[in-house]
Request: fold
Amino acid sequence: MRFARAVYTALTYVVLPAALAKLAWRSRREPGYAAHVPERLGKYAAPKPARPLIWIHAVSVGETRAAEPLVRALRARYPDHAILMTHMTPTGRRTGEELFGDTVLRAYLPYDFPRGVARFLDHFAPRIGVIMETEIWPNLVAACKARGVPLVLANARLSARSARGYRRLGSLAREAVGAFCEIAAQTADDAQRFEALGGRAVTVTGSLKFDVAPPLEQLARGRAWRESYGPRPVLLAASTRAGEEALVLDAFAQIAGNPLLVLVPRHPQRFDEVASLLRERGLRYARRSAGDPVAPDIQVLLGDSMGEMPAYYAACDLAFVGGSLVPSGGQNFIEACAVGTPVLLGPHTYNFAEAAEQAIAGGAAIRVDNPSDLARVETGLLADHDARAQMAQRVLAFALAHQGATGKVMAAIESVMK
Reply:
């Protein structure tokens, strides 16, 4: 074991008790963190798979949804193989269950210490590992290489800020990145950054998220919601992050008339926190989880449900996509594009930098800098039906033009499955 990874491995054992303590703490707000804890250490109760196995690691909700077209393509191409999806969060695991049911196996990936990784590989013995986006764990990658398990980094993205962080890790990062057999990068900039870190066989495939089709039943559900809201305008603030809801509400207060704001926080453990904020502001609100009709005097609908984002997008006139008014890098706005909903983005979109700039340049999205700017743009678009309709057409065209990543990622996987 090289010196850098030896130091890293020692640190993993030092911080392991703290990681388990953090699980217990997080389970107070999200009970799912208390389930399947032995899997975090590489201990699995389910029997070992009887068929050859393809393993996909999707850390949380976004990566799991992005993997959907890839999972379906793999099942069609390799029907004699079982598919395992590993996650790190309960919401990611639940999303996998909602999307795939019993057609795939699911488990937590163990923390990156050698004994846990060895137990995982002993139990599942994957033929190949497909890691979604940027989950690069040095001991896991090294163990796969030692056992001859090829790894593909799919839908790979690496922001300039993340690349700087990896460079600071020196040989530890170069060894891990260089061990991937194929890196299917979302953009040319991502590919260049991976190559600078020692990545080999790096190709540009685009984003799998453009290939995710919104479920028809959710689109129908969203249209039914929209009809029930009546003729007033409906604004959506989707996947908002901590501190961002207050900024959205500041913008909402500047919009005249009686619009309905649908506010959907990114993380379910924050639903009650956001409800408290609405009460503090004196706003009349309802909760989606209650299932009650949204009365005409309701100002805000708190979207405290999981797995319904396509329906929320289908039920609104304009969508602001969160994580972008605060420096969180922006959440997935491609979901809104797939539905044909005009998109507003804040200044912080480094998680989707190239796609965001292309969408803005093509008139499929509009950048806003602050709450006042958000209120101004929303007011202008709500007053101009033709402008909204034209923007919706550009949004759909943008989404359609960027499809096709699944076939390119499958080509990378097939090249190492021969």
Summary: The mean pLDDT is 95. The radius of gyration is 22 Å.
